[in-house]
TrEMBL record:
It is found in: Cytoplasm. The keyword DNA damage does not apply. This is Probable tRNA sulfurtransferase. GO terms for biological process: thiamine biosynthetic process; thiamine diphosphate biosynthetic process; thiazole biosynthetic process; tRNA 4-thiouridine biosynthesis. Its EC number is 2.8.1.4. It comes from Clostridium intestinale URNW. The gene is thiI.
């Protein structure tokens, strides 16, 4: 008798038809990467995936973080022996201290002489007969649900043995994005949400030295590290942004500073993405959250993008975004009190309903291409 992890993946993965092999290969590879550094064995039994390790707890906490894994079940493996299955089911019900139960069987191995219904009924009967104390069978929502899987070996587990996984789709299966990562609460959550759906993540941070300190940069690096703990690796591109901001302040109207700055952020993100072969751009914007995130503001900043811009938080409330950031471990870093470049260059009365044409006109005072090139040429790269 030994304990293993049974790994369950997103049902969506199995809807992908011809891509199923690719999905499975990627998921398996990502699980292997997460388990690097600990001794483990990967076992396949009639299509189901299991992991054995001396340090099952650590293996479980790592595997549950892999995108595409919906559940990790800590199962007990025994030989495919009917008497042993019955005894183990009984001990599982005793362990659960429940007053009602149900047996649910999945007989994948047709060499086993009983079908799933028969096993459930007979094992249930055995448990009822041999249990000391009050116990009944309950079909809907039983206190103790014993799952029996009959494959080459047999595996048993109950609801108590199920750990929820991160969900989503295998990392890397859905293209790539350049996330604008600031030190705030929102953008790390946006990055997590894109990565969770299988999109490969690259990050760009605009740094306004000396107006923003090294500590502000460290904060963004720490956020990128947390994101990298979910993905396999993350590249963080730090772009010097002071020159651009100074140019805007000198040459443009005060109420247009914010929107023009945002357009430059977008241009630089797209240019970097182009150079690195990254397909899209993502931000942590949410409609109406601040004065610059109005419909018009978003339209005018998207105007300069040459690829799709994704804003996964667009319809979310701040409270819900904060809940996710706490859960994924970025919140405490995000609330460290260091200024970001946007808080230093905020105009008193920013335009909340900018229009594309007048903004394009205002930008004619600037050498846009040279400013973008200068910023992109001086990017620093960090790998996490
Ligand atoms: P966040 O909490 O993500 O900082 P926010 O609510 O503070 O967002 P803004 O400061 O207006 O909103 O920024 C909106 C989005 O623009 C951010 O979510 C982020 O994607 C991007 N962004 C803002 N500042 C920077 C920066 N210095 N470097 C990289 N991206 C940035
Ligand atoms: Mg911010």
């Amino acid at each position: 008798m030994k304990k293993l992890l049974l790994i369950k993946s997103a049902p969506e993965i199995f809807l992908k038809g011809l891509n199923r092999n690719k999905f499975e290969r990627l998921l398996k590879k990502n699980i292997a990467k997460k388990l690097e550094g600990i001794e483990y064995e990967f076992i396949t039994d009639m299509g189901r995936w299991f992991v054995y390790s001396e340090d099952l707890e650590e293996a479980c906490s790592r595997v549950r973080k892999v995108f595409g894994v919906t559940q990790v079940c800590i199962v007990t493996q025994i030989e495919r022996d009917y008497e042993e299955i019955k005894k183990l089911a009984l001990s599982k019900v005793i362990e659960a201290k429940a007053s009602n139960f149900k047996i649910e069987t999945n007989r994948a191995n047709k060499e086993f002489p009983k079908n799933s219904m028969e096993v459930s009924r007979e094992v249930g009967g055995y448990v009822l007969t041999n249990y000391e104390g009050e116990l009944s069978v309950k079909i809907n929502n039983p206190e103790c649900l014993v799952k029996v899987e009959i494959r080459d070996k047999a595996y048993l587990y109950t609801k108590l043995d199920i750990v929820k996984g991160e969900g989503g789709l295998p990392y890397g299966v859905n293209g790539s994005t350049m996330l604008m990562l600031s030190g705030g609460i929102d953008s790390p959550v946006a990055g997590y949400m894109m990565a969770r759906r299988g999109v490969e993540l690259h990050c760009v941070y605009y740094h306004s030295h000396p107006y923003t300190s090294e500590r502000a940069k460290d904060k963004v690096k720490d956020l990128a590290k947390v994101l990298a703990s979910y993905t396999e690796k993350v590249n963080l591109y730090v772009v010097p942004f002071t020159e651009i901001q100074m140019g805007i302040i000198e040459k443009c109207r005060e109420d247009e500073l914010t929107i023009i700055m945002r357009r430059f952020m977008m241009r630089v993100a797209c240019e970097l993405a182009e150079q690195k072969g990254i397909q899209s751009v993502s931000t942590g914007e949410s409609i109406g959250q601040v004065a610059s995130q109005t419909m018009e503001g978003l339209i005018v900043s998207t105007d300069v993008a040459d690829r799709p811009v994704f804003r996964p938080l667009i319809s979310m409330d701040k409270e819900d975004i904060m809940d996710i950031s706490r859960r994924i471990g970025t919140y405490d870093i995000s609330i460290r009190p260091y200024e970001d470049c946007c808080t230093i260059f905020v105009p008193k009365h920013p335009k909340t309903k900018p229009q594309v044409e007048p903004i394009r006109k205002s930008e004619e005072a600037l050498d846009i291409d040279a400013l973008v090139k200068e910023a992109v040429d001086n990017v620093e790269v960090y790998r996490f």
